[in-house]
Design a protein that fits this description.
458 residues, alpha/beta, TIM Barrel, Immunoglobulin-like, 4-stranded antiparallel β-sheet, 13 helices, 14 strands, 30% helix, globular
């Protein structure tokens, strides 16, 4: 029999451990501090890749749109495929024969992104890993005959040294068990207990993702999905419990309210400071998440437009998750690669204004348009303020209405060695006029979105 001392020690250990645990309710789960790596990273890459990459037409919802009678998709399928063609017939052509995870990792590293989120399973139900819960509808049994999730995980972690996350759709368009639960008004939970949640456990144990980006939740409440139960395990017991971050798509009553960070709607960019950490999941292709064969250059965001999204998102406290769609054979096409590498070149010069920053008192300038602010404490403990100028000043003078300079204020242009002169407004008034020098084109630090660094403001 144990001594009274042993019993008391055990009770103390249990109580301390219990006090640190998260309970399966939103009040407790929302109290978990967001791992700091996520907020500091700011820039992520999203990858939508699956069987939908074979037709690469319209959207990743092609199967659903076709079967529910949307004319654009019905006509496309009627004109190009035999009458008895099924969506499953696309899967053998999801070949990924040109997929080199090392090449992808090198592109992502060059982009300056600090994390990557791959689609492990979209609404079509096809898993990009050999899931034992998706017999003959996974990337090992049909199509690539490869573990796409695992191969990219290894390459990202070994070559790029950035964080790796996974997107996972809870629901599936036409899974019989899901449709049965739906027919029963979600009073039964057969799909959840035998498919959706077991897949998530499998992903966590096998690949240890540092982001779980949930989706496909909206038709049912969180109680159907057992979201709080899974997240309590994820935060308390899982092999990634100390580093993992999650979004807010865990039930139709949860989105934009609960979770690790708020992803709210697609392409969410409110343009104002938010009370909680949030993410702008957006696309370089203005209209689609997956690769489209009929995409045009005009459909793609320019670098100026992409950096506008970056600046406005980070200034308001968000992260930006930039989506590209790989092809069915496993390529990231040149237009996507060019945008990502150009982003990396810009961050090489201006990353100090992005990584590890916090929102400033002002998010955008009170007087001059197209200026966004970020801030960061420097090694001396004072605050550096960064003004991201989305347009180059016309006449060499640039007025900022938000900062108030002191006698010790210095202004520099990131990537340009010479200090920038400035003048203050009338005494005790807010604002600073920056005197932009005539910089030769071959000395210009970047081609768009120039950054002024201001130190020792009042």
């Amino acid at each position: 029999m144990p001594s009274i001392t042993t019993i008391l020690v055990c009770l103390v250990v249990v109580q301390v451990g219990y006090g640190e645990r998260y309970e399966p309710n939103w009040e407790s789960l929302d109290s978990r501090p967001l791992p700091s790596w996520y907020d500091e990273s700011k820039i992520g890459i999203f990858l939508h890749w699956g069987v939908f990459s074979v037709p690469s037409f319209g959207s990743a919802w092609l199967w659903y749109e076709w079967k529910t009678g949307v004319p654009k998709y019905v006509d496309f399928m009627a004109k190009n495929y035999r009458p008895d063609f099924t969506y499953a017939d696309f899967a053998p052509d999801f070949t990924a024969e040109l997929f080199d995870p090392n090449d992808w990792a090198d592109i992502f590293k060059a982009s300056g992104a600090r994390y990557v989120v791959l689609t492990s399973k979209h609404h079509e139900g096809f898993t990009n890993w050999p899931s034992k819960y998706s017999f003959n509808w996974n990337s090992m049994d049909v199509g690539p005959k490869r573990d796409l999730v695992g191969e990219l995980a290894s390459a990202i972690r070994s070559r790029a040294n950035i964080h790796y996350g996974l997107y996972h759709s809870l629901f599936e368009f036409f899974h019989p068990l899901y449709l049965q639960d739906k027919e029963n008004n979600f009073t039964t939970r057969d799909f959840v207990t035998t498919k959706a949640i077991p897949e998530l456990y499998e992903l966590v144990y096998n690949y240890k993702p540092e982001v779980i980006w949930s989706d496909g939740d909206w038709e049912a409440l969180d109680t159907y999905w057992n979201s709080t139960g899974f997240l309590a395990w994820l935060y308390n017991e899982s092999p990634v419990k100390d580093v993992v971050v999650t979004n807010d798509r865990w039930g139709g009553n949860v989105q934009c309210k609960h979770g690790g960070f708020l992803s709210c709607s697609d392409r969410f960019n409110p343009g104002t400071l938010q009370k909680r950490k949030w993410e702008n999941a957006m696309t370089i292709d203005r209209y689609a998440w997956e690769y489209r064969r009929d995409v045009t250059l005009a459909d793609m965001l320019t670098m100026e437009e992409l950096l506008t999204q970056v600046a406005s998102t980070v200034s308001c406290g968000g992260n930006i998750l930039i989506n590209v769609g790989p092809t069915k054979d496993g390529r990231i096409v040149p237009i996507f690669e060019e945008r990502l590498r150009s982003l990396g070149q810009w961050l090489n010069v201006n990353g100090a204004a992005i990584y590890g920053t916090s929102p400033w008192v002002y998010q955008n300038d009170t007087v001059t348009k197209h200026v966004w602010y970020t801030s960061k404490k420097n090694s001396q403990g004072s605050l550096d303020v960064f003004a991201i100028l989305l347009q180059w000043p016309d006449h060499g003078k640039f007025y900022l209405g938000s900062p108030t300079p002191s006698q010790n204020t210095t202004v520099t242009l990131l990537g340009y060695d010479t200090p920038i002169k400035w003048t203050a407004s009338a005494a005790h008034e807010q604002g600073i006029t920056v005197l932009i020098p005539a910089i030769p084109f071959n000395k210009m630090p970047c081609n768009y979105a120039w950054v002024l660094k201001m130190q020792n403001l009042a």
